[in-house]
Amino acid sequence: MDYEIVMPQLSASMEEGRLVNWKVHPGDSVKAGDVIAEVESDKAVMDVQSFKDGTVKELKVSEGESVPVGSVIAVLQTEGGKEAPEKEKKEEPEAVHEAPKSAPPKKEKPRKKEEAPESVVEELFGGASASKESKTGPTTEKRAAVSAGEASPKARALAAGYAIDIEALQKEGSLPLPAHEEDIKEWYLRRRFTPKALKLVRLYALDPAIFDKAGKIGEEDVEKYVKEHEIPLPKPVSTMKKAIISTVEEAAKKPVYHIFDRIDAALLKIYENRELTYTVWFLKLFAEAMMKHEGFRTTLKDEKLFVWPNASISLAIADGEDLYAAVFKDLNRKSVEEISAALAEMKRKIASKRVRPEDLAGSTFGLSNLGMTGIERFDAMINRDDSAIAAIGAEVDGRISVTLTVDHRVVNGLQAALFMESLKTLAVDRRFFERAKEGGD
Amino acid sequence: MLYREALNRAIDDVMRIDPDVVVLGEDVGLYGGSYRVTEGLVAKYGERRVIDTPIAELSIVGNAVGMAIGGLRPVAEIMTANFSLLAFDQIINHMSKYRYMSAGKITLPMVVRFPQGVSRQLAAQHSESYEQMLSAVPGLTVFAANDVNYAYHALKKAVLMDDPVIFIEHELLYNKKGDVDFNAELDPFKARIVKEGEDITIVSYLKMVDDVMASVGKIEESLKRSCEVIDLCSLNPVDYDTVAKSLKKTGRLVVVEEDHKTGGYGAQIVSNVCEELFYMLDAPPLRIAGEDVPIPYNRTLELLSIPTPDKIAEKITEWGRRNGL
After folding, report:
1. What are phi and psi of A66, to 5 degrees?
2. Residue B126 catalytic?
3. Which of A355, A373, A412, B313 holds its CA 20 to 30 A away from the CA of A180?
4. ipTM of this model?
């Protein structure tokens, strides 16, 4: 029985997925639960498991390719039903072995098989025609239907322009039968360009016709052209980048305002260390303030407001070009040590591209800390469903800048100002720091 | 809005602005039309303008021709295309030729509406398609409506045009939903690009456009190529410009029709493309059409006799694989 494995929907917004790499090859046997591939969704790279035992029959998608959710990516041959192909494969070589004298194992065989029809084709072209039909059976019938020189009208017109002799090239096997426009183009490009040059032409999406140099065009010719004509390198947009673009566009539509203030960093400086970084302390500090101001635990969806019982914060974590809004849940109930451990774990997940959709959902408030880079003050864009985000700058003269970007539909200016007031009070409250070390609530 | 409602609205709108417009046919008045296209019109415009006729197709079209000569704008309904055969003398010898025979002195501003095609188990004598015969008659304009918006605008324009128009509808489309942009300026002679694509041009019309659209996903998935789908809309004259523009891009033509394959309408499209655009073709054109049998009554056989989305997908995929895709 054939069992089809499809591109899974790994998040609600996922429409297509990119196959990052295959963990199996055709012919491998897999068990239910085995990871067969890694797939990049709009959010993260995740494993795809097989739900059945079987043998990999076919991989339908190549690595790096993006396909829509639900399309078949691989076919498994499962137990029961057609076992025949499996058996045939085993028996066939033995039968054939008798013919060649020194029987080199398996590998030789498929090659032999491919060679056979080719020589038949040559025979046909050589004029020997179909005299040996009985021996070669159905293959000849198929091949005999087309003879050298067959090409589509479009291919012919193109070949004429390039002065290409289709018939001669088909006889020597350089062009397929029948030839189509793409075959002629491909052949022409291979003749005009060195393989490396052709790669560059494709990379920069250049029109091959712009090169009028006689003789073979090399890598250096293409590079020269690119530099002289200032051709930009088209860069493929990753699924992650696409997701970031749409999230940010969504965020830009929110009616926001900004509130700016500085908080005293004296106690933060005392309590901060390698484990309990500024980021950890800020997560806890904001979580504490959020518990006092329910507006910052509120989300707006379909014109309805929802107030969440705990403080969950999405933290902006950049990994090269990728940007994650990693969510830390129920921070009000966690000690700073626990938060620190959670942060470390999240960073590990990001580095190994093992972030799961649930790691990126469920927050009501966001935090972006560029303070460690020395940026003094900036403002951030609100994450997906959050109602506000805080942008934390660097410490200057014992004070740290905090800019709140707030969705005015959810939280008004006075509420935001009071929230900021709570933050400032907590930041200078030694009891808060002690309590935070012990645990939550 | 439903397809039948769009047609109703089109007739209603022209009747309101032009008192010369009259509707005639079997059961178009009190009953509201077999497919409810003329529903409510008799109450609005009275029995002098919405006329129930006897079951006599020759006289329906004959009377319409007479009315048109006399200065009215008749919209005649043939209950189903098969019955139109009785009216073919009027359609071919009179409706299409009067303007020519009178050296242009007489115009025939009339429309004959043709519900046709394989519906659901109506059997051989109620399932025919006659676009191939009607398009072969010089002097007739032939429109075929798949799209709801097109149905509204094209029927309105057909009634207001001074030349005779055959307006073909498909019996399975009457309840198709769609939006009508009442303010649009639609050219009924222009083909409609239903979906843009790069590699295969699929030309179709009437209900088959929907079946093609239902098959396109599968085709694109298995061939990893994209399809451009064109709804011809006007079957005579044909908007070959739109077809040519698409073929320049794709180099590959598929025509899908419900009609029987031998002598079917799609042959004309393929023939024209081969004559005019031969050097643009990168694959032999493919025709997907109904089988050369009277349409069977049995539902299984009925579906076997005409293209379905599955068959369309299968045939195009197989043809693509054979031809370098």
Report:
1. -105, 135
2. yes
3. B313
4. 0.72
